[in-house]
Amino acid sequence: MNTHLGKSLAFFEGKIVPLSQAKVGIMTHALHYGTGVFEGIRGNWNDQKSSVVIFRLAEHYARLKRGCKILQIELPYSVDDLVEITVDLVKQSGLSQDVYIRPLAYKSEEKVANLKLHELESDFTLMIVPFGDYIDNDKPIRCQTSSWRRPDDSMMPTGVKLSGLYTTSILAKTEAIKAGFDEAILLNHDGSVSEGSGENIFMVEGDRITTPAETENCLLGITRDCVFKIAKNEFNYEINSRKIHRSELYLADEIFLTGTAAHITSVGHLDNRPIGRGDIGNITNKLQKKYFEIVRGNDEKYSEWYTKVKIK
Ligand SMILES: Cc1ncc(COP(=O)(O)O)c(C=O)c1O
């Protein structure tokens, strides 16, 4: 039973504090210029094990560290240290429910007139809050091809979660929601398909599964990687990654989106056109079922993906 309510906490300036006490000044560099790099990590509540199962924690921190390298943020923590800090925060929160974990490494110096990354101080903070459903995965969603384009990696690094990059995602998501859709699909500057506002995209034709290649400016998603591995291990599907044309999406039998927050979500309609029959396709359904079992910590074959934190 989910009885313990727990607390939202932050690791801030080296200490664990209530979330409401973690504050930065208005001159903070990252606030003005988006000079931060973050992660979105899920801890999924497993009732039988009375544990929060943090999913692929080390991989999220490896990606955070790649982003730090690009932004010239020298983190004083190794991936192992970051895992340890996170486990401690989850334990201390006492949250016995699904949680969202948000690390952020950022240019913390209160100096807005300095545009030289290498001269600015950095800091690392981490937050934990309760988390409900991001997208309702039971029914297919309706997507819109965005009028906003995914920035090219030559404009802004796209393979890591740089804070400033998210302005594009937010503009695209807002446009889609205001037009009555659930999510936006962003194209690259050359018109090929990149990804959703916060998810990678896959299309299915017959039993062929295809996703935009790593060179298509999409985030190198951890759920994307899970789908490659689950498709191969469980169903013997090889996933092809390549450039995808917009019109190929309209002709696909199935489309699904993947992400830590969105899990695996079926796309029923794109630009008001039904994809396949407009319902959750066969392959999407198989992958979704297996992924949900794995992500909650219920398949020990994938135990290297789990960091289990027992909550008393
Ligand atoms: C732009 C973007 N693409 C894809 C993803 C999916 O990545 P992951 O599966 O690592 O959550 C995310 C989510 O973090 C995202 O923000």
What do these coordinates show?
The chain is α+β, with helices and mostly antiparallel strands and 312 residues long. It has helices at residues 29-33, 57-71, 79-93, 166-178, 222-235, 246-251, 282-295; strands at 9-12, 15-18, 36-38, 41-46, 51-55, 99-107, 122-130, 141-149, 183-187, 193-196, 200-205, 208-212, 239-242, 254-259, 263-270, 273-274, 306-310. The protein folds into 2 domains: 9-130, D-amino Acid Aminotransferase, Chain A, domain 1; 141-295, D-amino Acid Aminotransferase, Chain A, domain 2. It contains 7 helices and 17 strands. Helix 5 links the parallel strand 12 and strand 13. Helix 2 packs across helix 3. Pyridoxal-5'-phosphate (PLP) is lined by residues 40, 169, 195, 198-200, 219, 221-224, 258-260.
